[in-house]
Specification:
The complex is a heterodimer of chains A (256) and B (502).
Chain A: H1 2-19, E1 26-31, E2 33-36, E3 43-48, E4 51-57, E5 74-85, E6 88-98, E7 108-110, E8 152-157, H2 169-182, E9 186-197, E10 203-205, H3 210-225, E11 232-242, E12 249-255
Parallel strand pairs in A: 2-7, 4-6, 9-11
Antiparallel strand pairs in A: 1-5, 2-3, 3-4, 5-6, 8-12, 9-10, 9-12
Chain B: E1 3-9, E2 24-30, E3 42-47, E4 50-56, H1 79-82, H2 93-103, H3 130-135, E5 138-143, E6 158-164, E7 183-188, H4 197-200, H5 238-248, H6 258-268, E8 271-277, H7 296-301, H8 333-349, E9 353-355, E10 370-372, H9 374-377, E11 391-392, E12 410-415, E13 428-431, H10 437-440, E14 449-450, H11 472-482, H12 489-500
Antiparallel strand pairs in B: 1-2, 3-4, 4-8, 5-7, 6-12, 9-10, 11-14, 12-13
Helix pairs in contact in B: 5-6, 8-12, 11-12
Classes of the chains: A alpha+beta (256), B alpha+beta (502).
């Protein structure tokens, strides 16, 4: 016990030292993305207050961050790092939410040049180098949850203003596996709406109907997956909670 | 009796290497309902590019009394009417026109229900069947509002207005959207009823395109559908598709008996079709030293569920044996053709271009645009379909990309403000066919069509669900224009030749 306390103190002290440095700059802004071609794969950028920021390279659906879209503005939320890639400062962590409505002014595609080179790409613009002979890209199925089963909350995150869960397949699967194993009497699906404080001081709130639609959409998904309709209880909160991307969510509460 | 004659027809695929050949004598085939002849385990049928091969994995098929080959409905048609063995288990516009001329429009393929532009039109007039005759299209009357899988009506995310109604069906007091039957008439090609194992195997529970939505379940088996059947994935299984076709295309009164249903599905799941030989009569696949993916037997033997957008398991495997070493020249026309096919493989598999504004492609985490190749989306090994639920909007039916088609209806779709829009067209969409959206009710699906397979193409023109590409060259030209690819003439020729041997 004593040893743990000592370790904690050291960590706290280290944290205090780090805290003395410049505070990381967190940015949240809406801007057009810019696509820059390179000799290997394209990279994504955006400009805010005269500074270019790097938003990632073209990858595939396994990517950590999904790229934005020309033809649309995007909400960018990230912390500025000292690193620079493809002519833009790296934001890490980074969240990109494509704004749903069209904006034809977002249409900048820069040609490839010798200045900007991407060499760390896992994949080029063509087919993947190889796949296992089995052909699938999926790993083994996760182990089924085991009893005892307690009440479990599974947050399913959404992009800003987006009503379909998009990349949250893993979390949906986690919730479904727990439901399948625990056979709950009730599955509560509660949708939330969020707002983000932009770097210019304005608050950008999600559309008023988002919480309801998220909850209903996810309830439909669970029903189709086989969760008994009578066990599902859907609710939502229309209040726009100001915060980061974790506020843009549906919480699935599984009550065995 | 199977009916066959010889006729001179022009070579399809203008611009392809094959065009060097003049019009050739190509046998014509037509399988009448109730023909009764056996369908052998291995059959070949001539086409402009060589021969199509048909392979029945379960051996010779007795067609006499078989519900796929007999007129089991009330209008004289059988499944085989629109799924002809000689035409890759589909049917060409050219054959439909020939049937009109030879039967003076009496062939049951011209049944008023869907073989005419609208059932109310004078059925004896050729013009009333122009979409079938000119484009190989059949009317599909989709309920409005759309219905769920269980048959209940759903509230769609959009409204629909008729902007252009050249057939008169969408504004007709009986058949129109606001008419007695409340249906949206769209016009689609019959799909190829072969090689079905690749895209009817059960799929995963969640749509792998990262929409976080579940794929529909087959209520009979409880398994999730791959959702790659039909142009709009509305049928979750071959059994569901057969019931739908029996009721709506064969006008069967009452349910399809279980024994017949089983026979139809059993037949469909064992029949394979692919181009088998080239114009010179030489085998394309099925032997050592030839491309492993070619020919119907290769399709029967192929593995299901293999992702092919990688060099480990390429979509159509390898054509390297047909390449000509640098500095050497082709010894003859056939060798030159095969080298062109191998280059066409390159155009398909590794030639990148900007894929842009394609719903359910750019939206799956690739970014918009994404610099990729044909094989990125056409990634299912052996078929070139999508291994995920395969509906996409590449613009074949939506304005502004769809080919001008004043003979087809045009709809205005207005999406509600509280639903996700079609990300690349917006909330107001003009379309010749809303596609998947008429089954899902979703705005984001407007104009999305399930990818068709790439096999047996030489026997089943025209192409795309609305028959808007008369030849393989027109199909390639569409993509060239749509994605501003800037293919060279050589690349176009090579790609057409490649497609012609599949």
């Amino acid at each position: 016990m004593k040893k743990i306390v000592q370790t904690s103190l050291i960590v706290l002290a280290a944290g205090a030292c780090l805290g003395a440095g410049p505070k990381p700059v967190e940015l949240a802004f809406v801007a057009c993305p810019i696509l820059r071609d390179t000799a290997t794969v394209p990279c994504w950028l955006t400009e805010y207050k005269g500074q270019m920021y790097y938003l990632g390279i073209q990858e595939d659906s396994a990517a950590q961050v999904y790229p934005p879209a020309l033809g649309h503005q995007a909400l960018i939320e990230g912390t500025v790092t000292g690193e620079e890639i493809c002519g833009g400062k790296v934001l890490k962590p980074l969240k990109i939410s494509i704004r749903p409505e069209l904006d034809p002014t977002c249409n900048t595609l820069l040609p490839a040049s010798d200045t900007h080179k991407i060499t760390f790409n896992r994949r080029g613009p063509g087919p993947n180098v190889a796949r296992p002979p089995g052909g699938g890209g999926r790993g083994p199925a996760p182990e089924a949850p085991k009893p005892p089963f307690a009440v479990k909350d599974v947050p399913i995150l959404f992009d800003f203003d987006v009503m379909t869960p998009g990349r949250s397949g893993r979390a949906i699967r986690e919730a479904f596996d727990y439901i399948t194993a625990s056979k709950p009497r009730k599955v509560e699906i509660r949708g939330y709406r969020a707002a983000v404080k932009l770097s210019d001081g304005k608050v950008l709130a999600e559309q008023p109907f988002v919480a309801e639609r998220r909850a209903k959409e996810l309830a439909g998904t669970f029903e189709t997956l086989g969760v008994p309709k009578e066990s599902i209880v859907v609710s939502w909160s229309d209040k726009a909670e100001v915060g980061d991307f974790n506020k843009r969510r549906v919480v699935v509460t599984i009550r065995p | 009796m199977r009916w066959m004659t010889l006729a001179a027809i022009g070579v399809a695929g203008a611009g392809a290497f094959a065009v060097a050949a003049a019009a050739a004598d190509i046998p014509e085939y037509w399988w009448e309902p109730g023909d009764g002849a056996p369908l052998k385990s291995s059959e070949t049928y001539g086409n402009a590019f060589g021969q199509l091969g048909l392979h029945n994995a379960s051996g010779d098929i007795t067609t006499k009394g078989h519900p796929f080959f007999e007129a089991i409905g009330t209008n004289g048609r059988a499944c085989v009417t629109c799924h002809q063995p000689a035409e890759s288990m589909s049917v060409t516009a050219a054959t439909i026109e020939r049937r009109w001329n030879e039967t003076k429009g009496k062939d049951p393929i011209f049944a008023a229900i869907d073989g005419s532009n609208c059932p109310n039109l004078p059925q004896g007039e050729k013009a009333s069947h122009s979409l079938a005759i000119d484009r190989g299209l059949f009317r599909v009357a989709m309920p409005w509002p759309p219905k769920r899988q269980d048959g209940t009506a759903m509230e769609p995310e959009f409204s629909i207005e008729v902007v252009r109604d050249p057939t008169g069906c969408n504004t007709h007091p009986t058949y129109g959207i606001t008419g007695e039957q409340k249906s949206v008439s769209v016009y689609r090609r019959p799909r190829m009823a072969a090689n079905l194992k690749y895209f009817t195997a059960p799929g995963g529970g969640l749509n792998a395109k990262n929409l976080g939505m579940a794929t529909l379940r087959d209520p009979e088996t409880g398994l999730h559908s791959q959702m790659n059947l039909m142009s709009d994935a509305r049928a979750v299984s071959l059994r569901a598709q057969a019931r739908d076709a029996a009721a709506n295309h064969l006008q069967l009164k009452g349910p399809l008996p279980e024994a017949q249903l089983k026979q139809i599905v059993d037949f469909e799941t064992q029949v394979y079709a692919g181009q088998q030989s080239d114009r010179w009569g030489r085998q394309l696949g099925g032997a050592a030293g030839l491309p492993e993916a070619l020919g119907p037997k290769a399709l029967a033997d192929g593995r299901v569920g293999v992702l092919g957008d990688n060099f480990g398991n390429p979509v159509f495997k390898s054509f390297d044996m047909w390449r000509i070493a640098e500095g050497k020249t082709a010894r003859d026309e056939q060798e030159a053709f095969r080298a062109s096919v191998a280059r066409g493989w390159d155009v398909f598999f590794v030639r990148p271009f900007w894929i842009r504004d394609a719903m359910h492609i750019n939206t799956v985490g690739l970014g918009n645009p994404t610099k990729r190749t044909c094989a990125t989306c056409h990634n299912m090994q052996m078929t070139g379909m999508d291994l995920s639920a395969g509906w996409v909007d590449v613009g074949t039916t939506n304005v502004p990309w769809a080919n001008e088609s004043p003979e087809l209806p045009l709809f205005k779709i207005t999406c509600k403000t509280d639903v996700p829009p079609h990300l690349y067209v917006g909330r107001t969409i003009y379309t010749q066919d809303p596609g998947r959206a008429l089954a899902s009710g979703r705005c984001m699906d407007v104009g999305s069509i399930v990818m068709g397979q790439f096999r047996g193409l030489s026997s089943r023109a025209p192409y795309f669900s609305n028959g808007s590409a008369k030849t393989l060259r027109e199909l390639v030209d569409f993509y060239d224009r749509r994605f501003n690819i800037k293919y060279t003439e050589q690349e176009k020729t090579d790609l057409v030749n490649f497609l012609s041997v599949l």
